[in-house]
From TrEMBL:
<keyword id="KW-0560">Oxidoreductase</keyword>
<dbReference type="Pfam" id="PF00881">
    <property type="entry name" value="Nitroreductase"/>
</dbReference>
<dbReference type="InterPro" id="IPR023312">
    <property type="entry name" value="Put_nitroreductase_C_bac"/>
</dbReference>
<feature type="domain" description="Nitroreductase">
    <location>
        <begin position="102"/>
        <end position="153"/>
    </location>
</feature>
<dbReference type="InterPro" id="IPR000415">
    <property type="entry name" value="Nitroreductase-like"/>
</dbReference>
<dbReference type="GO" id="GO:0016491">
    <property type="term" value="F:oxidoreductase activity"/>
</dbReference>
<feature type="domain" description="Nitroreductase">
    <location>
        <begin position="6"/>
        <end position="63"/>
    </location>
</feature>
<dbReference type="InterPro" id="IPR029479">
    <property type="entry name" value="Nitroreductase"/>
</dbReference>
<protein>
    <submittedName>
        <fullName>Nitroreductase</fullName>
    </submittedName>
</protein>
<comment type="similarity">
    <text>Belongs to the nitroreductase family.</text>
</comment>
């Protein structure tokens, strides 16, 4: 069921380094993104895949994870991602900075859900300096990196916590290392006519 995949599709910041991700698996994830919706069907997004150990180490050094848990310095040593998909915009197709941001989100969700269906995990990462990362991997300047997605077999445990709309939504880890993801309750996110009048 789709909802079960969505529940499994948590941002993962610790991976089993012995489980490699193949090029075919990465291409299958990209194929799901390719087939997804695109604004005016322009399709300016391109996808840089990497499972080469040396290049993955370079990408690891240019991205940061777990912004709400800086004291943990995630990922922990020895649990780094083993593969990446970089969602890029080909500026020769469209130079619009904002016009295709929703396409990035749609494609990212398709990629991470495909990973979840394969029994893998992912983490969408926006904390990187685009030009530095692009230069580090030798990517042509026509491609602007919009989002980085880490891929691998996760080793973390997750709990989804239901919270009311006035409670904190900050994720956290408990004393057992379980990663808690607060999600606002369904009744609090649905807008109804009756609710607006109160």
């Amino acid at each position: 069921m789709l909802k079960d995949l969505i529940k499994k599709n948590r941002s993962t910041r610790g991976y089993d380094r012995s489980r490699k991700v193949t090029e075919d698996e990465l291409k299958e994830m990209v194929d799901c993104a390719r087939l997804s919706a695109s604004s005016i069907n322009k399709q300016p997004l391109r996808f840089y895949i990497s499972n080469d150990e040396n290049e993955v180490e370079i990408i690891n050094s240019h991205v940061k994870m777990g912004g709400l848990l800086p004291e943990l310095h995630l990922p922990l040593k020895g649990t780094e991602p083993v593969a990446y998909i970089l969602i890029c915009q080909d500026t020769k197709i469209s130079f619009s900075k904002e016009g295709f941001t929703k396409d990035v989100g749609i494609c990212a969700q398709s990629i991470t859900l495909a990973a979840a269906e394969m029994g893998l995990n992912a983490c969408m990462i926006g904390n990187f300096i685009q030009k530095r990362l692009r230069d580090a991997i030798g990517l042509d300047e026509r491609y602007e990196i919009k989002l980085v997605i880490a891929i691998g077999k996760g080793i973390e445990k997750f709990e989804i916590d239901e919270v009311s709309e006035n409670q904190s939504t900050n994720y956290y880890r408990d004393e057992n290392g379980v990663h808690h993801v607060p999600k606002v309750r369904l009744d609090d996110v649905v807008i109804s006519r009756n609710k607006q009048n109160h």
